[in-house]
Amino acid sequence: MRKPTDPERLYLDFDGFFASCEQFAHPHLRGKPVGVVPFAGVGTTCVIACSREAKKRGVSNVMMIKDALRICPDLILQPQNPDLYRRAHNALLSEIAMVIPIDAVKSIDELTCRLDPSQQQHPLAVGDAIKARLLKLVGPWIKCSIGYAANRQLAKMACKAGKPDGNMLWHPRDMPGPLLALRLADVPGIGKNILHRLWAAGVVGMDDLLATQPKQMRALWGNVTGERLWYALHGYDVQPPVSERGMYGHGRVMPPDHRSLAAVKPISRLLLVKAARRMRRDGWSASRLHLWLGMWEDSWSGSVDMAAISDDPGILDALEQLWGKARRALPPRPVIARLGVTLGELSRTDRRQLDLLTNDEPIRQRLEKVTEAIDHLNRRYGRTVVSVGPWTPPPGDHAGGKISYTRIPRAEDFY
């Protein structure tokens, strides 16, 4: 495996992206502590993102609103606007691509680039050019941190070490010096469970981690991920494995006045249809549907098998079966705070295996044509004008278009 002698990777992370976008779009929020929240007028949820000003006051992401207001009484609660973040993401990527080609978009606010040989000699100049372009064309409200290193893993860690608004270079000749100042928990890929495994094995600091062997790391992780991390931390050119799509789904935190069975069910239908649209758009069919309902002190989940379908009527019929199971299992008048629907066990629609026992091919083809016609009409008019059954958007809207950090929605995800 090759070990670069120059920094070959750039990793960019926008600082407080959601809150920065709100400050960019709304001048009255600039320079003030801002907390982005899921819904307007609801004080029982959490702050999903906060501005630099709020962070300086002690507010953090995923902090309960009541706790955030106690720390920062003048915190401005701004309802989320996912479509704004999507449009900002696309515009910012266009500007960055004028400076350096983008190799991979990792999330709504993170991306990575490859440095060409000339850029490897002066990597900080690339970041300076990106920051100068964004300052000129966007203004000072949306800022980013940038890291450079031999591979993507180290570049991401350098980026994080330079936050906020940093331009941090970890040159291969200086390694592993910068790593020794970090905690194990600062390493992407080391979560709570892995951390406890490392402690149990006597690995309590970065120097211990770097002194391990590749096969030892593989054993601690229980798979090849640990071995890959070892090579990445030691500066090798580790390429990320190609990942395959495993599921399509959506989740939703329910507003306080929409936590009954009667209120949650139509929203589950809407979320499922939006997930199915995305699945069809990518050419997949699903053989399993999963429904999850989260209550304050308990949860319920169930799944049902399907015959590798992608049409809305068939998928919604499967959802009805799951709701029948849920009604029989849940206590009377449950309070459902969270909801999730997932389409899994995917297979390519154009490679569907016929089931000789059910012989559902004629029915499936007819339902797929109906669904295709519905999708065409909705795309043409830019909104949901036709649906199978009721279409009941929840309060706060954005159902199915919510930013999940790991998925960047398209315009059609918002209708």
UniProtKB/TrEMBL annotation:
SUPFAM superfamilies: DNA/RNA polymerases (SSF56672)
InterPro entries: DNA/RNA_pol_sf, DNA_pol_Y-fam_little_finger, DNA_polymerase-Y, Rev_trsase/Diguanyl_cyclase, UmuC
Coiled-coil intervals, chain numbering: none
Enzyme Commission code: 2.7.7.7
UniProt enzyme class: transferase
GO biological process: DNA repair; error-prone translesion synthesis; SOS response
Name of this chain's protein: DNA-directed DNA polymerase
Organism: Paramagnetospirillum marisnigri
